[in-house]
Amino acid sequence: ILFDCKNYNDPISQNEIYSTERYLYGNALRNVAIILSRKGASPHAKIACQGVLKEHGKLILILDDNDIQKLEKIYYNNKNGVNDYTPSDFLFDKAKDFLLNLDK
Q: If we measure between CA atoms, which residue out of 94, 36, 29, 100 comes closest to residue 65?
């Protein structure tokens, strides 16, 4: 998994999606990227993520500050025995939602 951190003041654009996509190689078993962005992604960036998956089979998930805070809360709740929902469950749900909401 490739992690790409974007500390931008605005939501990331489709250009950042395409630049991250260039680092993903199927032959190197590197087909998944998680972009950490302060403000999330623009609507065009979300469409670009769908296009990258459809055309090249590369999955790019975008997490914003709210998602990171949720991950942290889930981690500590899981660590303290409050629930069994893990951060990996959260990421799996994000990926599932992305895949289920692909445009036709």
A: 36
Measured CA to CA, the distance from residue 88 to residue 5 in angstroms comes to: 19
Between CA 75 and CA 83 the distance in angstroms is 10
Residue that the structure tokens 């993903």 belong to: 24
Burial class of residue 72, CB neighbours in 10 A (0-12, 13-18, 19+): exposed
Question: What span, in angstroms and rounded, lies between the C-alpha atoms of 82 and 95?
Answer: 24
SS3 label, residue 37: strand
Neighbours of 32 (CB within 10 A): 14
* Segment 2-59, tens digit of pLDDT: 999 999 999 999 999 999 999 998 777 789 999 999 999 999 999 999 999 999 999 9
Q: At what angle do helices 43-56 and 14-21 cross, to 10 degrees?
A: 30
Could you tell me the two tokens for 67?
């998602």
**Which pair of structure tokens corresponds to residue 94?**
């994000």
